[in-house]
Amino acid sequence: MNQVWHRVSKKRPCEGCKKPDWCTYTDDGKYCCMRLTSDRPLKNGGWLHTAANPVAGIPVTRKPKKPVTIDAGALWRGWKDKTTPKRVNELGDALGVEGGALWMIGACWIPERQAWGFPMYDAKGKIVGIRIRTLEGDKYAWTGSRNALFRSTMPVDNKQPLWLVEGPTSLSAALTLGLGAIGRPNCSACDEMAVEYVRLNRIRRVVICADVDENEAGLRGAEKLQKVLTVPSVIVFPPVGKDLRDFLKAGGTRDELESMLRNFIWSVPGKVKRKAHHV
Ligand SMILES: [Zn+2]
């Protein structure tokens, strides 16, 4: 029989520890206390209590693991205020992109990690997470971050196609090339948020620019997004290199990318069949 376990609440606190959180109970009088033991330990780390298994009365000193919540915007502003344009320009030189592009996407130096941080925004433009990039190029998110979009503080021009790229450094390359662009954390994240961003900013066309990778994860992620986009889109790969930063470093230009787009058939939303081709 499938037992339905309800979470305890202020109104209906746990019968064992009398606390309003963490523990659970069933309609037929069993409960699982996470703080008081019985002789029936359960898989979730708590103990079963019934008439036959009364509370053993040994309180366990442990606290529920609360999910970490952060004010990502405040964290970012603290670091950004102490980050000089000179330092951001140096990062630009190291990455082969314009320092101004990194500045616009909010690159900040995080002294306690000795790493760079990039703010991630939800579709409405609120900072909800921080991506960390170490000096060695390793990437991870600040604990408590939500995965979200990288974007520029410059307003987007919705008469131009929006380029959707992978990660903050590819985004800085796209902006250096003069494209209107946003980034997502990886090749398959934040589909819904991107769709929402497109809707809110009245974007008319989207260029999904996938990184070149061996297992074609980039292409699969791009196709997954294309299926849910509500405006015409194309899937492209950088003509040179594995991402737009490689393309930029190899001397690539916006004109080159735009003439490449002329060779593509734009998808019609809801009718995606065509496979993207590597140029
Ligand atoms: Zn309890």
What would the keywords be for this entry?
279 residues; binds zinc ion; alpha/beta; four-stranded antiparallel β-sheet; 12 strands; 17% strand
Describe the structure.
With 279 residues, the chain is of the alpha/beta class. 26% of the residues lie in helices and 17% in strands. The strands form 3 sheets. It has a 4-stranded antiparallel sheet with strand order 1-2-3-4, with no helix packed on it. A hairpin with a 4-residue loop joins strand 7 (127-134) and strand 8. The protein starts with 5 loop residues before the first strand and ends in an 18-residue tail after the last helix. The model has no long low-confidence stretch (mean pLDDT 89).
Number of strands: 12
Low-pLDDT segments, ≥5 res: none
Report the span from N to C terminus.
57 Å
Number of domains: 2
Number of helices: 8
Report Rg: 25 Å
User: In the CATH hierarchy, what is the class of the largest domain?
Assistant: Alpha Beta
Largest sheet: 4 strands, antiparallel
CATH fold topology of the largest domain: Dna Topoisomerase Vi A Subunit, Chain: A, domain 2
Helix content, binned percent: 25-40%
Strand content: 15-25%
Bound molecules: zinc ion
Strand order of the largest sheet: 1-2-3-4
**How would you describe the shape?**
elongated
What string, H for helix and E for strand, traces the elements in order? EEEEHHHEEEEEHEHEHEHH
Q: Would you tell me the structural class of the helices and strands?
A: alpha/beta
How are the secondary structure elements laid out?
Layout lengths: L5 E2 L16 E2 L5 E3 L13 E3 L22 H10 L3 H11 L3 H6 L3 E3 L4 E7 L5 E8 L4 E3 L20 E5 H10 L4 E4 L6 H10 L5 E4 L7 H12 L4 E4 L7 H6 L4 H8 L18
The structure holds zinc ion (ZN).
Zinc ion binds next to loops.
